[in-house]
Amino acid sequence: MPTRKTTTSKSQKTSSTRSSGKKVTTSSGKSKATTQSALEKNVASLSTKKTSSKSTSKKPSVKSSTRPKLKDRGVKHTRCKNIDLFPVNCMPWRLEPRTGKFNLSWYMCFDHAVDQIERSNLKPRDYKLMCYTSVPLSDPLTGPVRIQRYVRS
């Protein structure tokens, strides 16, 4: 009886397929050469851009804010004299739904109402924003300093 080998004959042979079954491909070296030449061209173009940008004067940086500085922030509102529509004394802003996308709500200031409109991605046809007449026309609707307004004085 012939002696049995502990390794299989398949593992001893060199095959053109890997153990996963995919064929082994060898690189011809062309991709490396084209990559190298493309890299050199990119570096050359970047260095020319840098030298041309250095010759121009640099503009001073302007700090941009995330919120627009418009008074209305793109949201229109109406004024209302009906005190029955404002049941909470410290909330003179009412956001009324015209469609079924959200529920009726009241807010302490204009910014809070606009934040909710933006979070909900509401269009002007979806809501009606009202403020009670206790909010004066000269009131700064947005900004760092806002005075608490009340429905009933």
Can you describe this structure?
This protein has 153 residues and is α+β, with helices and mostly antiparallel strands. It has a domain at 78-132. 26% of the residues lie in helices and 11% in strands. It has helices spanning 9-12, 30-55, 110-119; strands at 78-80, 93-97, 105-107, 127-132. The longest helix is centred in the first third of the chain and has 26 residues, at 30-55.
Strands, count: 4
Write down the overall geometry.
Answer: elongated
Mean of residue pLDDT values: 78
Give the SSE order as H and E letters.
HHEEEHE
Oligomer: single chain
Adjacency order of strands in the biggest sheet: 1-4-2-3
Tally of individual helices: 3
The CA-CA distance between the termini, in Å, is 111 Å
Whole-angstrom Rg: 35 Å
Structural class label: alpha+beta
Portion in beta strands: 5-15%
The percentage helix is 25-40%
Q: How would you sum up the major sheet?
A: 4 strands, mixed
Poorly predicted ranges: none
